[in-house]
Amino acid sequence: PVASAAPGGAATSGNGSGTAQERAAVNDGAEGGRPVAIAPSGDVEAQLGVPVGLSVDGATRAAFTLTVTDIARAQECPSRIAEPAVVTAENGTFLVVDLNAQMAADYAAYDPDAPFLTLDRDAFHLTDQDGNIQEDSHSVASYACYPAAERVTPFINPGESAAGKVVLETSLEHGYLVYNPWGVPGSGWRWAF
After folding, report:
1. CB atoms within 10 A of CB 112
2. What is the pLDDT of residues 97-124, one digit of tens each?
3. Is 144 exposed, middle or buried (0-12, 13-18, 19+ CB in 10 A)?
4. 171 burial type by CB count under 10 A (0-12 exposed, 13-18 middle, 19+ buried)
5. What is the SS3 assignment for 143?
6. Alpha-carbon gap, residue 152 to 162, rounded angstroms
7. How many whole angstroms separate alpha carbon 144 and alpha carbon 142?
8. Residue 140: exposed, middle, or buried by beta-carbon count in 10 A (0-12, 13-18, 19+)?
């Protein structure tokens, strides 16, 4: 996908191989999006409740948007299966992320090699305030949280919308939730918690 960091900014054509500023744009539905703040890690700084996404067509519209609506802590969560009914955090607390996403019907035209994006927890990681990745955030206990009906679908395809929960586990008091479906450092978005 093509993205622009600011209204009127130079768009980059191609498959998104430019900088984070060229790939990840904040878009609130207004034509041209808004300027973005870039973290030292290269990820775009995002805010709860504010859509972020990939802009296309000279930053006039978004091909993909993601909104993290809430990040909450919990010591336990409802189980994905019947027994046990409740799952307890193993390494700190659960970080329960509520999100929604939309993908334009023509998204595949902008990235034919990857015509979908993952929304599953594997596309998320946690860092401390210095940017160090917390290695144990994808715990077995966090995977066991919430029935499938409450979790976000693992993938979003062109023309689809999705909403639900992603659960990670953390021992950090403060840090960042990072969404990076490409796995390339500095090419995602991050939210403070």
Report:
1. 9
2. 999 999 999 999 988 888 999 999 999 9
3. middle
4. middle
5. helix
6. 7
7. 5
8. exposed
Strand partners of residue 44:
38, 189
Predicted pLDDT at 12: 31
How is residue 57 annotated by DSSP? T
- What are residue 97's DSSP bridge partners? 71, 166
pTM of structure: 0.83
Asked if 179 and 137 touch (Cβ cutoff 8 Å), the reply is no
- For residue range 68-83, what is the model confidence (pLDDT) as tens digits? 999 999 999 999 987 8
CB 179 within 8 Å of CB 20: no
Phi, psi of 108 (to 5 degrees): -60, -25
Torsion of CA 131, 27, 55, 47, to 10 degrees: 10
Q: Give the number of C-alpha atoms closer than 13 A to the C-alpha of residue 187, restricted to the C-beta side.
A: 15
Token pair, residue 148, equals 């499938």
